[in-house]
Amino acid sequence: MRHYLIRRYVLLVVASVIVSLLSIATYAQDDIVFTPQWTAQAQFAGYYVAEAKGFYREAGVKVRIEHPSVTLPAMARLRSGKCQATTLQVCQALEIVDAGIPLVNILQTSMNNAMVIVSAKDKDPLSQKGARVGLFLGFGHLAICMSMKEHLDYQWVHLAQGVNLFIAGALDAMVAMSYNEYYQLIQAGMDISDKAVYRFCDHGYNVQEDGVYMTREYYQTHRQQARRFAEASRRGWEWAAQHPDEALDIVMQYVDRDRIATNRTLQRLMLQEVLRLQVDRESKQREFRLRPDMVQQASRLMVENMMLGREVSYEELSE
After folding, report:
1. Which of 37, 70, 196, 263 lies at a CB distance of 3.0 to 4.6 Å from 119, suitable for a disulfide?
2. What was the pLDDT predicted at 273?
3. In this structure, are residues 107 and 238 in contact, taking their beta carbons and an 8 Å threshold?
4. Percent composition of the chain: helix, strand, coil (DSSP 3-state, to 5)
């Protein structure tokens, strides 16, 4: 009887250890590293909110937000497995899929295009043929498509970051985001008139931008995890829209932690504009969905301008 009790006790201990190990394994499967495509700023407020307010934890997924570096950008982290999700603009995603890396869009936050061209000479950018125009590396697909269609013959000056060249007068114009560099120029004291700003969304180029992507290989084996992560992220954005001041407080905590050179005023303007761009022009709602018509439009434009070797369909990006 004594041996039986000892053996039963041992079996119970072993079973308890196995259950614990299984729980740990299950929990580990629910871990996800998320890398936004840039440094800490209000462009990613919804994800910071979801982490800070415990929305990810409540959804049963443990999320760690790790920003990219100069030597290891977001897409490189995704490809190497250092993160499981990242944010990309639609045009970037199409380019990556065309290059042979299947992706899945699990959440679309942007419903409108934020790209603008700002003239340094208070002129309509379309009147500046042959102008020296600053363009950030990896972005600006639509700007190039538009310039070719309009026969503008821009001289593209590729930028890594910042607006200093433009402010110094070394550029005739620059491609900027309405939620970021545009406000940086205004904060620098530049007087920018409406005629000096070309907004792509108002001229037939309203293609969605930021969405959350995973590699299709990872998504296929982690569907539930991906959906819980997407739902909690959406909840973070919805909360940010309802509580913008508190969301800004959370953004500034991330900014201060990472020692980002910015200020609260700029981040407030960025958050307001990002939230505005999330509202679909037609439905007047935050839809959080990838629009097939916008994917098709972007794909066709990029094929016409030899940025893609083939048209990438909406189905190739969808779940």
Report:
1. 196
2. 98
3. no
4. 50, 15, 35
